[in-house]
């Protein structure tokens, strides 16, 4: 396996309006150019070469002189494209691939698309996802690939196709650790509060016990007849001085 930094793509086939297509295209180009600068040893782009995001990513990589590797979901994948410009575009990209990885599926299936997504994650160092943030519409869709990458601890950069922004997604494991740390802090704070409350309660009981004992002494042992003193002291018991 090459020691180059390997960047894979996943994303929607239908990106919507032209403004979104333009945004995703520019985002791919900018991200790849940045990774090129940060990895002088070289990078490799991995793409399933499906219509939409996959092709835009592949074309951006080739424009920057980045070697491209294609991952083909099943035998006869060219039939996934309508005859004409779309299929010709696929053939054009296929010919420019430095390496072609053919997965062992004979026909189109959800399993084949799932396998492509997982292969891209397993054999990459970074996943770039042109994703709207919603769950996958079908098995092996973009949302599924992103979830798999996060579970595997793979870095994911999301090119958000509806909000038109780019951000790094945290791996699910790290997100779980953060949530656990927040829960632990909550438990610790609750415990400290309970300890303080118990201390105050114990002090309250002790002080009131002393006051009650003193009143008993005044009434029984000293023959107190001025009951207004008892009335005056009683609020002290209520407020626990």
Q: Do you know the CATH topology of the largest domain?
A: Rossmann fold
Largest sheet: 7 strands, mixed
Q: Share of helix among residues?
A: 40-55%
Classify the secondary structure makeup into a structural class.
alpha/beta
Which series of helices and strands comes N to C? EHEHEHEHEHEEHH
Instruction: Count the domains.
Output: 2
Class of the largest domain in CATH? Alpha Beta
Number of separate helices: 7
Task: Give the distance, in angstroms, between the N- and C-terminal Cα atoms.
Answer: 76 Å
Number of strands: 7
Radius of gyration: 34 Å
> What do the pLDDT scores average to?
83
Low-confidence spans: 174-187
Q: Output the strand order for the largest sheet.
A: 4-3-2-1-5-6-7
**Could you say what the CATH architecture of the largest domain is?**
3-Layer(aba) Sandwich
Strand content: 15-25%
Oligomer: single chain
Shape: globular
Describe this entry's structure for a reader:
- The chain has helices at 18-38, 53-63, 85-95, 110-122, 142-151, 172-221, 228-239, and strands at 5-11, 43-47, 68-72, 99-102, 126-131, 156-160, 165-169.
- The protein is α/β, with parallel strands linked by helices.
- The protein folds into two domains: 5-169, 3-Layer(aba) Sandwich (Rossmann fold), CATH 3.40.50; 175-239.
- It has a seven-stranded mixed sheet, with helices on both faces.
- Helix 1 crosses helix 2 (53-63) and helix 4 (110-122) packs parallel to helix 5 (142-151).
- The longest helix has 50 residues, at 172-221.
- It is globular and about 95 Å long.
């Amino acid at each position: 396996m090459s020691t180059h930094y390997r960047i894979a793509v996943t994303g929607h086939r239908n990106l919507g309006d032209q403004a979104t297509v333009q945004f995703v295209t520019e985002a791919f180009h900018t991200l790849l150019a940045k990774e090129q600068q940060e990895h002088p040893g070289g990078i490799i782009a991995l793409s399933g070469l499906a219509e939409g995001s996959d092709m835009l990513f592949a074309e951006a990589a080739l424009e920057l002189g980045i070697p491209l590797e294609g991952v083909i979901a099943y035998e006869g994948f060219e039939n996934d494209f309508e005859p004409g410009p779309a299929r010709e575009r696929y053939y054009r990209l296929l010919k420019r691939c430095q390496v072609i990885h053919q997965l062992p599926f004979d026909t189109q299936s959800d399993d084949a698309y799932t396998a492509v997504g997982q292969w891209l994650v397993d054999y990459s160092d970074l996943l770039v996802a042109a994703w709207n943030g919603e769950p996958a519409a079908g098995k092996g869709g973009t949302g599924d690939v992103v979830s798999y990458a996060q579970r595997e601890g793979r870095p994911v950069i999301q090119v958000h196709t509806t909000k038109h922004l780019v951000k790094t997604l945290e791996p699910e494991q790290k997100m779980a650790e953060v949530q656990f740390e927040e829960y632990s802090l909550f438990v610790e704070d609750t415990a400290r509060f309970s300890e303080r409350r118990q201390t105050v309660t114990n002090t309250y009981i002790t002080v009131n016990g002393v006051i009650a004992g003193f009143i008993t002494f005044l009434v029984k042992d000293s023959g107190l007849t001025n009951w207004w003193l008892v009335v005056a002291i009683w609020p002290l018991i209520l407020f626990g001085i």
